[in-house]
Design goal:
three-stranded antiparallel β-sheet, 3 helices, 3 strands, elongated, LOCU_1 protein, signal
Length: 107
């Protein structure tokens, strides 16, 4: 009886292993294509971020801290910027919509 049980268990394990290993070459090609597309997308996104930073660059030399907030989204906490110029650059680079709230740091 024990031998029959051992053979049945071994057979079930072999069948389960074969089902996991069963991958056709076309499945492998699909995986390669997906990975290649993901890498290409990352490169394009990184280039777009660099281009956006170049486009948004300003010479913000003065430091006069301000507190800014996003009026259309109350869940976003107010943020302190070194100046309104720095706030404009941040809005441009990240696509945010911070606006002046008051002078000085946010509390």
């Amino acid at each position: 009886m024990k031998a029959v049980f051992a053979i049945a268990l071994a057979t079930a394990c072999i069948v389960a292993l074969c089902q996991q290993v069963d991958a056709s070459p076309s499945d492998m090609e699909k995986t390669k294509d997906t990975k290649a597309k993901d890498a290409t997308t990352v490169v394009k996104d990184t280039k777009a971020q660099k281009d956006a930073k170049k486009k948004c660059q300003k010479n913000c030399s003065t430091r006069d801290p301000i507190c800014a907030y996003v009026p259309s989204n109350s869940t976003v906490k107010p943020k302190t910027f070194d100046s309104s110029c720095h706030m404009d650059v941040d809005n441009c680079e990240h696509g945010t919509k911070y606006v002046f709230k008051n002078k000085g740091q946010c509390v």
